[in-house]
Write a structure and sequence with these properties.
Layout: E1 9-13, H1 18-29, E2 33-38, H2 41-53, E3 57-62, H3 68-78, E4 84-87, H4 102-130, E5 134-139, H5 152-172, E6 177-184, H6 193-197, H7 199-206, H8 220-227, E7 238-241
Parallel strand pairs: 1-2, 1-4, 2-3, 4-5, 5-6, 6-7
Helix pairs in contact: 3-4, 4-5
The protein binds 1,4-dihydronicotinamide adenine dinucleotide.
1,4-dihydronicotinamide adenine dinucleotide (NAI) is lined by residues 13-14, 16-20, 38-40, 63-66, 88-91, 111, 115, 139, 141, 184, 186-187, 189, 191.
Length: 250
């Protein structure tokens, strides 16, 4: 089994915070030159500094995944085709479906689904032009596999991303490009820590068979499997990492 990644290059979108920042640091610690991409350049520079301080190689590129011109400009700046793409940028909105306005729907779906497509397409074209294969990991969610309340746009975008993953895997296998979806359950990050400390959050945690939230580092094994040659025969798959949440009792 080959989980080695040194000498590879990776693009991680949404790398200015949360899971994206964690994935960037993880790959850099494995010897990957990581390009961190997001809209907030200052936060990216700070994350790059942290990685460099730990002995890793990282650079930053400004990127709005929902904007085709921004995606094209970012790939022009990156130059070489990245061996690994982690399509992690994503936003959520938790208003009830009856109160969802069109602009919110568009923002969520444009970021989570169209954005992932635009980045995957640009990466695949760059890889094909360079005559090499690669691995694309789309960060979806268990809400793309089973519904949860008040997440209509988010859950639909993640379900779409899971199906997009399968169609791209089918189309691009002949180019040596693998495409897989990582479907996290509820992972504790700075953004949701307060919610899960409250009453509603604690009730939700009781429905997870393992009775706890995941930690970002508990996604590492799945990400490295999908990104490295250890997963060389895995494409079109959706891998849930959720403490058993998808198999919770009805
Ligand atoms: P986060 O809000 O900390 O990170 C999201 C990142 O995406 C941020 O860096 C943000 O700047 C970036 N981003 C948003 N819109 C963008 C755009 N248009 N262009 C470029 N970058 C953009 O949230 P978190 O929790 O780290 O989420 C990361 C991914 O993991 C998301 O796709 C999310 O849906 C997914 N996920 C998270 C779970 C969790 O429990 N934290 C569970 C399941 C999935």
């Amino acid at each position: 089994m080959n989980t080695r990644l040194d000498g590879k290059t990776a693009l991680v979108t949404g790398a200015s915070s949360g899971l994206g920042r964690h994935f960037a640091a993880l790959l850099a610690a494995r010897g990957v030159h990581v390009v961190l991409a997001a809209r907030r350049r200052a936060a990216l520079e700070e994350a790059c500094g942290e990685i460099a301080g730990a002995g890793g190689a990282a650079s930053a590129v400004a990127l709005d995944v929902a904007d085709p011109a921004s995606v094209a400009a970012a790939f022009a700046q990156i130059g070489a085709a990245p061996d690994i793409v982690v399509n992690n940028a994503g936003i959520a909105d938790d208003r009830p479906a009856m109160e969802m306005d069109e602009a919110t729907w568009d923002r969520v779906v444009d970021t989570n689904l169209k954005g992932a497509f635009l980045v995957a397409q640009a990466a695949a074209n760059a890889l094909r032009a360079a005559g090499k294969g690669g691995s694309i990991v789309n960060v979806a969610s268990i809400t793309g596999l089973r519904p949860a309340g008040n997440l209509a746009a988010y859950a639909a975008s993640k379900a779409g991303l899971i199906h997009l993953t399968k169609t791209l895997a089918l189309e691009w296998a002949r180019h040596g490009i693998r495409v897989n979806a990582l479907c996290p359950g509820y992972i504790e990050t700075d953004l949701n820590r307060d919610f899960f400390a409250g009453e509603a959050g604690r009730t939700l945690i009781k429905r997870i068979p393992q009775r706890r939230l995941g930690r970002p580092e508990e996604l590492d094994g799945a990400l490295l499997l999908l990104a490295s040659d250890a997963g060389s025969y895995i494409t079109g798959a959706s891998l849930a990492v959720d403490g058993g949440h998808l198999v919770s009792s009805l």
